[in-house]
Amino acid sequence: MSDADVIIIGSGMGGATMAAALAPSGRRILILERGERLPDTAEARDATAIFAQGHYRPDEEWLDGDDRPFNPGNYYFVGGNSKFYGAVLIRYR
């Protein structure tokens, strides 16, 4: 694609929803994703491996407001964090 009308950063819940909403418009849409496809492994369906052991969690540190390091628990794969939450986005009210 040489030109895009819309560039969406990330293929997670928000990016995928935006792309789906814009698709019928005829605009040329480009989705940029930093991650790869989630491999088809036993760990990909194992909640303990994903959440307790951090199997897919990247080795990165962010700093909180007091400059204390923490790992935010982001996952960088096609589909974003939604791949790890069953593609469910609960609307809290």
Explain what the structure shows.
- This protein is an alpha+beta fold and 93 residues long.
- It contains 2 helices and 4 strands, in the order βαβαββ.
- The chain has helices spanning 13-22, 47-52; strands at 6-9, 29-32, 62-63, 69-70.
- The protein is globular.
- The relative contact order is 0.20.
- The model has no long low-confidence stretch (mean pLDDT 89).
Write out key terms for the chains shown.
93 residues; alpha+beta; two-stranded parallel sheet; 4 strands
Span between termini: 40 Å
Mean pLDDT comes to 89
Shape: globular
Strand content: 5-15%
In this structure, how is the largest beta sheet organized? 2 strands, parallel
Work out the helicity level.
Answer: 10-25%
Structurally, how many domains make up the residues?
Answer: 1
Counting DSSP H or I runs of 4 or more residues, the number of helices is 2
Rg calculated over all Cα atoms:
16 Å
**Could you say which structural class the secondary elements and strand pairing correspond to?**
alpha+beta
Order of helices and strands: EHEHEE
Give the number of DSSP strands: 4
- Residue windows where pLDDT falls under 50 for at least 5 positions: none
Widest sheet: strand ordering: 1-2
Quick recap:
The chain is α+β, with helices and mostly antiparallel strands and 93 residues long. The chain has 2 helices and 4 strands; from the N terminus they run E-H-E-H-E-E.
